[in-house]
Design brief:
With 374 residues, the chain is mostly helical. The longest helix is centred in the C-terminal third of the chain and has 26 residues. 71% of the residues lie in helices and 0% in strands.
């Protein structure tokens, strides 16, 4: 009965979140040029009936037709076709995926003895200003966050499945498919690939997966990326040269040292609410607590690895902490490798550090449904 009541509260809360944010979708934040730009390209694709077109309204920097972000435009096409070139309708896509993401977060804790943990995670996320901002922003970040949470949830479910001691090609293929689809939404699919890759190494150390599955994951993700690039190259022989030229204009070709220092500059600017043309809400407290959670999570993950070496069982809370930590480390590594520091990308580490903070606090204090055995 208590489980039913908590689920009813969760579903009612998510419904209210959807209604309230739909009613205020165009009021906050002010429309950004990215939104009209992306929706304008979607409309052009719809009119031309082709994904392999570039923005007809922009010629300042080199542009090259490709399929790297085609997944997002395909998702946005129905909204543009239904509501036209309208801010409300193009933002509806982000709201829809925000709802999906909230459900995934709540569902993560359904096997906990105390179901209120899932409600707490849900309310924390719904009240996070960066999550709310992304809900109202017609860019790829909310869709990408959904795929991050989907992959994370699937990994947790695989660990909890007592009938699976060694994961096979089917599970690896599904994870690679999630990463592949995410890559078609945005190149930040690399961040997800690295996060899942680190998690799979953790599974390997735990004896949950054979090392060849780690290799298969790398090959399958590489195959998905090669497929997108290959199709783009087939229809546009200048794709690689054009995409490389564009990357040089945004720092992708900078040295590794420059990119590493760029990561620190990136977070310093977000801390100081310096976002160029983007609105950055007050997130200093979230950044500080997130950094603390990452430090604690790294320590717990290191201890979990020691336990795994001795083939000791881990409580599921420790597993979630380790996977959240590895996802955060994968995100930072991916940002450095790409070298593209857009302030909107902070949504991914902010949400995962929020969940990590919740997990570490409950685990270290022996909160309801969690074990202090780390």
């Amino acid at each position: 009965m208590q489980r039913f009541k908590n689920r009813a509260v969760a579903m009612t809360s998510i419904t209210l979140y959807a209604i309230i944010n739909a009613a205020t979708l165009t009021r906050f934040p002010l429309m950004h040029s990215d939104e009209s730009w992306i929706a304008g390209l979607t409309r052009h694709m719809l009119n031309e009936r082709s994904l392999l077109v570039t923005e007809p309204f922009f010629k300042l920097l080199p542009r090259s037709a490709h399929l790297i972000k085609s997944g997002f435009h395909l998702l946005q096409v129905p909204f543009v076709a239904l509501g036209g070139y309208d801010l409300f309708w193009v933002r509806m896509l982000s709201l829809a995926f925000a709802i999906f993401s909230l459900y995934l977060v709540y569902n993560l804790y359904q096997d906990e003895p105390k179901k209120t943990v899932g409600l707490l995670a849900l309310f924390l996320l719904m009240s996070n200003v960066e999550f709310v901002r992304a809900t109202h922003f017609a860019r790829q970040e909310m869709v990408m966050l959904f795929f991050f949470l989907l992959a994370f949830s699937y990994l947790v479910s695989l660990w909890k499945n007592k009938d699976i001691y060694t994961l096979g090609i089917r599970q690896t293929l599904l994870l690679a498919l999630i990463i592949g689809v995410a890559t078609s939404v945005h190149p930040n699919g690399l961040l997800l690939a690295l996060s899942v890759g680190l998690s799979y190494l953790f599974f390997w150390l735990a004896g949950k997966v054979r090392f060849r599955q780690v290799i298969y994951l790398v090959l399958l993700v590489g195959a998905f990326a090669a497929l997108l690039a290959g199709i783009s190259l087939y229809f546009n022989p200048e794709f690689i040269g054009g995409y490389t030229a564009y990357g040089e204009t945004i720092g992708v070709s900078d040295s590794l040292i420059t990119k590493i220092f760029g990561l620190f500059t990136y977070y310093r600017k977000i801390f100081g609410q310096i976002g160029a043309t983007y609105y950055i809400p007050e997130v200093r407290f979230s950044l500080i607590t997130g950094a603390v959670a990452l430090i604690l999570g790294t320590g717990i993950t290191a201890r979990s690895l020691v336990h795994l070496r001795h083939r000791l069982d881990l409580p599921i809370s420790s597993v979630r902490i380790s996977l959240l930590t590895l996802f955060l480390l994968g995100m930072q590594t991916g940002l450095i490798l790409i070298g593209r520091y857009n302030t909107n990308y902070v949504l991914f580490p902010m949400v995962f550090s929020l969940l990590l903070l919740l997990e570490t606090v409950f685990s270290l204090t022996g909160g309801p449904g969690f074990s202090k055995k780390l």
